[in-house]
UniProtKB/TrEMBL annotation:
Entries under InterPro entries matching the protein: AB_hydrolase_1 (IPR000073), AB_hydrolase_fold (IPR029058), HAT_MetX-like (IPR008220)
SUPFAM superfamilies: alpha/beta-Hydrolases
PANTHER family listed in its UniProt record: HOMOSERINE O-ACETYLTRANSFERASE
Residue ranges constituting the AB hydrolase-1 domain according to the UniProt record: 47-306
GO MF, one example: homoserine O-acetyltransferase activity
Identification of the protein by name: Homoserine O-acetyltransferase
Keywords: Acyltransferase, Amino-acid biosynthesis, Methionine biosynthesis, Transferase
EC numbers for this chain: 2.3.1.31, 2.3.1.46
Top-level taxon in the UniProt lineage: Bacteria
Broad enzyme group: transferase
Amino acid sequence: MVQPDVSAMREETHDIGPFAFEGGGRLESLRIGYAMHGELNATRDNLLLVLPGTANTRHSADGYIGPGKAFDTHRYCVVAVDAIGAGTSSKPSDGLRGAFPHYNIRDMVRAQAAFVTGAFGPTTRIACVAGASMGAFQALEWAIHYSDMVHGSILMVPAVRASNVFRAAVRAATDVVQMDPAWNAGDYTTQPLKGLRAAGRLYYPWTVTDAYIESLSASALQDAIHQTVTRATQWDAWDFIRRYQASASHDIAAPFGGDVARALTRVASRMLILPVSTDRLLPVSSARQIAEHVAHARYVEVPSEHGHLGWRPIDGAPEAELISAEIQRFLNEGKAS
């Protein structure tokens, strides 16, 4: 018998049909893009969803995916999803631009739930949902609202709601894009690249720490900033603005009268919480709040000078090695239970 190549990745899209957004607006056809690694088993219970951060697509966690890695494709069918608004999922730059509905994290998750049942069948059970930053926002909403579908969740650099620091940084970054004359009140003919570059430069210091910045040489700092600036200019401006607005609107308590504890006590599944100790964009106090109210939570604070970016799957980085070990332990314990 020929064994499937679990290292192979298949890029696909799935149309979930009409979709109504929580804040109003509707699309007659909403597309979800994804990358699939590994195979779904006969009992359809080894699906592991990986969800992207604000600036990321379905490839943001690739370094954690593969045979023998944290998200082990020998054991799991790992599906890395593009959330609404970026990658190969439906997004403003498909044509609607500013007329594309404002969307939020719960919209992303409702669309993903429709995608899972539509693409893999209504009896498919999700072994785990996982993500970092906005990916953790989505994973937490999954655990709250779809406890019947989800066996476990992994939250890297999470929060119960977008912090005031994050909201302020997002507001500044999106404002500066719109200050570029090329923005033209949103009716641009060429991308407002000066604004996008400025947004990336402005946003970068919040993603790391003062100590890390001061440890860099002048040229290394410029290289690090340049990487963020380059990523920002790869976005369409309307896609960038809508995505960051969605992330900054995150608040799990919104459907529960502002009661965070009430939202979190709905989580029935196991959860691994992995904040980075020096994160100033999403402070660890919010991650601790999740651990306090989730009955079956494991909390591990990741020491790092890299701040919010300390979760990234960088080969040889002690943070990535710790995160990988904790994920493997968590998934192994879940398999045994």
